[in-house]
Amino acid sequence: MPRSKSSARWLREHFTDEYVKRAQRESYRSRAVYKLLEIHEKDRLLQPGMTVVDLGAAPGGWSQLAVRQVGERGIVIALDILPMESLPGVEFLEGDFREAEVLERLLVILAGRPVDLLLSDMAPNASGLKAVDQPRGMYLAELALDFARQCLRPGGDLLVKAFQGEGFDQFLKDLRAAFTAVSPRKPQASRARSAEQYLLARNYRG
Question: Does CATH place domain 31-204 in 3.40.50.2000?
């Protein structure tokens, strides 16, 4: 079966992408790690000894970076609806974050331990229709904020992927009500045509 024009274009872009090549050289699981790395280098997000939860973690690039930064005293818990190969020092939970049962399992793993940093790179399966995909993406961002309210320690931080459009302005207001500082981040590693941006919310009010 011949490939569609869009899939052929994606493959061509993927295998010529400088971040894909860099990830292969540096043994990271995905090019997405460089989005987090750029934000971390600017904002010093990850510190030794932190407890970090990584939502939408597969294939594991963000968790790889997180576990290297938090060190042996830190804890990294990763979650994704897709399977993920094990990573030393990372506890992985496979499941759909939209389901209450999966959320409960994540809370059991945390065992009441407050989270220092919540990362959410969750995105819906793309249908190609902005009117469908954008609200789905914002729903996942809202779920991440709800979880942050449950698990973040006072003073903790949230980095969440969001998409401009329906619900974005209200989500921004909700973030600003819960955190003392909120700022957008558009890493250079984000693909030029992508509508994604990241919102960095710091110092959870508790």
Answer: no
